[in-house]
């Protein structure tokens, strides 16, 4: 089974993630940030990943450290669950609308973490979640997972924009992590 458990403990946060890439979209998420919990649950549901996240941290300061560290640990969990990355599709993409918003995401499980993020948010917060942390979450996840993630979001309502992005990320990663017995290691180099 393609599963992993990863934990990270710092002076600022305590994060644990359990991931099953071949799940059915079940999740148990607790970060202390309601909107972020909802986004991570949507990510798991649409990616068909079973995901448990327990996170706590210095939310009395702001949400930066917690969101960043969840991105790092979730990325590490993906990297660990993928193992040598053999027999996966490698590439994935999604175009996900939500009302007036549209998120376009492409991913490459290349072993080289990098992100491009284009979106213009108009409000500072959605509940207790800072909209600017969406970009930071994607970058932290991409670098820790060794995945290229390219994100473009358009829309007028920040809630819809962020939610469509998390759903699109789940769908794109579901596509890229799917098993394909014919592929071997999907690289001309012979390794990722």
UniProtKB/TrEMBL annotation:
Superkingdom of this protein's organism: Archaea
GO cellular component, one term: cytoplasm
Transmembrane segments: none
Enzyme class at the top of the EC tree: lyase
Subcellular location: Cytoplasm
Keywords noted in UniProt: Amino-acid biosynthesis, Cytoplasm, Histidine biosynthesis, Lyase
This enzyme's EC code(s): 4.2.1.19
Gene Ontology BP, a term: L-histidine biosynthetic process
GO MF annotations in UniProt: imidazoleglycerol-phosphate dehydratase activity
Family designation: Belongs to the imidazoleglycerol-phosphate dehydratase family.
Protein name (record): Imidazoleglycerol-phosphate dehydratase
Species of provenance: Methanocella conradii (strain DSM 24694 / JCM 17849 / CGMCC 1.5162 / HZ254)
Gene name, Swiss-Prot/TrEMBL: hisB
């Amino acid at each position: 089974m393609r599963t992993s458990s990863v934990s990270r403990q710092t002076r600022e946060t305590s994060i644990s993630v359990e991931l099953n890439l071949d799940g059915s979209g079940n999740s148990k998420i607790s970060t202390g940030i309601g909107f972020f919990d909802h986004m991570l649950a949507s990510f798991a549901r649409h990616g068909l990943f079973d995901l448990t996240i327990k996170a706590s941290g210095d939310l009395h300061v702001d949400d930066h450290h917690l969101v960043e560290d969840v991105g790092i640990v979730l990325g590490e969990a993906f990297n660990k669950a993928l193992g040598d990355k053999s027999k996966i599709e490698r590439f994935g993409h999604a175009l996900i609308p939500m009302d007036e918003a549209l998120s376009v995401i492409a991913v490459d499980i290349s072993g080289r973490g990098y992100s491009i993020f284009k979106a213009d948010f108009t409000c500072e917060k959605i509940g207790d979640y800072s909209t600017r942390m969406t970009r930071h979450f994607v970058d932290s996840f991409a670098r820790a997972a060794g995945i290229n993630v390219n994100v473009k979001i358009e829309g007028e309502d920040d809630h819809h924009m962020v939610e469509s992005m998390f759903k699109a990320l789940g769908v794109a990663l579901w596509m890229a992590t799917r098993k394909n017995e014919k592929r071997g290691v999907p690289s001309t180099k012979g390794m990722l």
